[in-house]
Amino acid sequence: MTTTTPPNVRAATLAELRAAVLVGDEQLEIGRQIRLSGIRNRLAAASPGPWTAVQSLDGIIRVHRNAGAASYSRIANMLRSGHKPAQDAALIAHGRADLEWALDEIARVRAERDLLLKHATPEAQVAYWTLRAEARGQELEARR
């Protein structure tokens, strides 16, 4: 025998779950938005890409902005310090493009999540908000 929850109880449960999660999310989301805005602002202020890493004959690895066919402007010099200077230079050289991609991917995944949630069944929405509440509780606890 299958029982179903009356629609008005489901709606109340869903609204209560959503409200409870959003209260916890407020605190976390403000921090996320500040962090993401800072990343976007630093990217906007930095030299445009693409960047490349080139090792010179003297062993210094230079990270340059490729500004055209034969035009480069220096971003950074990687001296022979550190454990892995070539890998460090590659990380710096790809950092701008990687961050741009990551920010776009975050926006895409959030939009996809919002669209899926908009079209989800009430039961699926309750499951989503329940799992989200648990995850937010763990995240808030970890920050204490």
Describe the structure.
It is a single chain. α1 crosses α3. β2 and β3 form a beta hairpin. With 144 residues, the protein is an alpha+beta fold. It has a three-stranded antiparallel sheet, covered by helices on one side. It contains three helices and three strands. It has a domain of 97 residues. The model has no long low-confidence stretch (mean pLDDT 80).
Low-confidence stretches: none
Placed side by side, the strands forming the largest sheet appear as 1-2-3
> What percentage of amino acids are in beta strands?
5-15%
Largest sheet, in brief, is: 3 strands, antiparallel
Shape: elongated
User: What is the mean predicted local confidence, pLDDT?
Assistant: 80
Q: Quick one: how many beta strands? A: 3
Distance between the termini: 46 Å
Rounded to an integer, what's the Rg over CA atoms?
23 Å
Share of helix, binned: 55-70%
- How many separate helices? 3
Series of H and E elements: HEEEHH
Structural category is: alpha+beta
Short summary:
Helix content is 66%, strand content 12%.
Write the layout of secondary structure elements.
Elements (H helix, E strand, L loop, with lengths): L6 H39 L5 E5 L5 E6 L5 E7 L6 H34 L3 H22 L1
Antiparallel strand pairs: 1-2, 2-3
